[in-house]
Amino acid sequence: MSILDRLKEFREEEKRLTWEGTFREYLEIIKEKPEVAQTAHSRIYNMIKDAGVEEIDGKRSYKFFSNEIYGLEEAIERLVEEYFHSAAKRLDVRKRILLLMGPVSGGKSTLVSMLKRGLEKYSRSEDGAIYAIKGCPMHEDPLHLIPHHLREDFYNEYGIKVEGNLSPLNMMRLEQEYGGVIEEVIVQRILLSEDRRVGIGTFSPSDPKSQDIADLTGSIDFSTIAEYGSESDPRAYRFDGELNKANRGLMEFQEMLKCDEKFLWHLLSLTQEGNFKAGRFALISADEMIVAHTNEAEYKSFISNKKNEALHSRIIVMPIPYNLRVSEEEKIYKKMIKDSDISDVHIAPHALRVAAIFTILTRLKESKKQGVDVLKKLKLYDGQTVEGFNTQDVEEMKKEYQDEGMTGIDPRYVINRISSAIIRKELSSINALDVLRSIKEGLDQHASISKEDRERYINFISVARKEYDEIAKKEVQKAFVYSYEESAKTLMDNYLDNVEAFCNKNKLRDPLTGDEMNPDEKLMRSIEEQIGISENAKKAFREEILIRISAYARKGKRFDYNSHERLREAIQKKLFADLKDVVKITTSTKTPDENQLKKVNEVIARLIDDHGYNSVSANELLRYVGSLLNR
Ligand SMILES: Nc1ncnc2c1ncn2[C@@H]1O[C@H](COP(=O)(O)OP(=O)(O)O)[C@@H](O)[C@H]1O
Ligand SMILES: [Mg+2]
């Protein structure tokens, strides 16, 4: 669909979502669909739940988060169950500020922004629909119109609990515009939107001296005050603080603990009592979720301050640690790169994985279990099998430390190092070694790393590098093995022809020239030596093979590559030794012969076609593996 069609469609959609009617009509809507009147917390919980839940290995994964947040299933499950779910049921946690606590760049802001974007979308859906008194700057809940003394009757009839008082502004409007006839008050459907400041707000503290509480709670409107004659006339007040605007939805409080206390008290009153004080008015009721984030150090200094004691009990802290699984970390990098301006650079296979191995190592704590080093722990956490350990062990390891994942290298650092390597060297292709090198260089410039940590981290770089060496060797082998079955068969046929001639004391015929020639002793030995057959034992071995072949022939079976275990092993080893030679050649100054060149090119083509390399990274890989094999 073209963009113009999409715009038109969008406009029609907006129109379709518009609804306006009297309070009387609104009551009909909620009679049919009481969830329309749910609290902000309940709406947020339902939004998360409605997106679906997957059970993976007995763990819950909330789809709402899973396509953007990786490796935090446990933290998210806790957040959803202990906070959102309980808050939706109007339990006491709802009355507390949600504080996400975790290390820098661990996904806290991402999480909050998903909630915001999610709410915007959800309010446009059937299930997430939401209504407000028309013309109210705080999009006040229409049910606030129901007088307190009738709320019990209302509950009996509709099954809906009404909390909160009608705001001073709407109280006045009810009298003046509607002559006190509640049923006639106009209600409209609202669509939450941060840009339009409907139901979603963000507050971030600026300089404490210049910060104005009005940013939170609104302020007197001096342009209209003359008209209305008094500061306590609600029409002379602008209800445009973040707390006002975020009513019915969510407000994000950035850097909450850096904020002046007087701001916190407003929040606390709001979360605790469901209302806050603005201007010279009675308390204003609001229904919104407040979510803040902070790091561990800030949180610790906050709670160690006696002055803040009363505040602690009104905050619910949810830890958001770093991801601890290599495969998930790789996904985080991929996502971040996709969203960045280096998305068109070729990143060689395994480069991100190797970086992730390094990163996760910096986050893990040494297990107290026997025989587990951090690398093994890393593999176990990632769901790989490590001999001698089972899933039970992994669960026990996870329980060893409450605060694992609260320190270490953050994903943004890795992405910055990748970008900087690319930009500095003007690379169009980057491999695992480039990445590790750049990470290492960066550690020296990293101001917030202690000397001890730096040493530990440098050591982890070598661990990651060793892992890469293994990966790289396997990768080349795998690519080589492509023509493996065929090469193995050819080599074996060749060997058997020679063995036959040797045992029968015959000559062989050169397939090209037709000339007679002696059995190729060098070839036979090069294979036999692979499995340690000595010069003295070679004759017996060759005869044994001939006997096996004739036994097969008598039974009408074909002797093939798999018919003799030791021979097969010898052939495989020989092939790999040849591979080494081929790979070594590519790294030396010697020019490969035609046959070797052909093999090299085959391997490179294979790496490009099937394993995600480009010609630069494939050549780099071969050269590197060559140098490894030369050691
Ligand atoms: N577990 C994770 N899953 C997905 N992305 C993550 C994760 N942790 C960090 N990120 C990414 O790292 C970057 C920094 O995260 P951010 O949400 O700003 O962290 P914080 O607010 O905790 O400092 C973002 O691009 C984010 O998408
Ligand atoms: Mg952040």
Automatic annotation (TrEMBL):
Boundaries of every PrkA AAA domain copy: 21-371
Entry-linked InterPro entries: P-loop_NTPase, Prk_AAA, PrkA/YeaG, PrkA_C
Highest taxon above the source species: Bacteria
Protein name: Protein prkA
Molecular-function GO term, any one: protein kinase activity
